[in-house]
Structure prediction request, 119 residues.
Amino acid sequence: MRVPAMKKVIDETCNSDEEKKLFRAVMRQMSPSWEEVWAYPMDYRDAGAGVGGFIYYSETEPFAKRNLVEILQALNDLEDDLGEPLKKDRDNPLNWYAWFALEHIIDKVVRFKEEFEEA
Prediction:
């Protein structure tokens, strides 16, 4: 199976420089290689199921703090597209932001892969 370069996926799915930066940050935070993520993206789609780098507060909170501007921009863009705000976890907002980032970026990989395989 052909694996496109991660840069190609980033360039074709991300709408801003902030989102490109967030994509790279999520991939760096995760433990699997790009080839593994590409082969089985749905295995990494649900942060609550335990995705390496996004399991413990000691991982998610620093990640969210480092990438907060990019996460908030992606969240605002998505909420604008949806026309309504997402329900956020008010008890653990940094953890929620990190999980949002992971799931948002993996959604991009999933959609790109579906189109890529149809072509």
Remarks:
- The chain has a mean pLDDT of 95.
- The two ends are 13 Å apart (CA to CA).
- The chain has six helices and no strands.
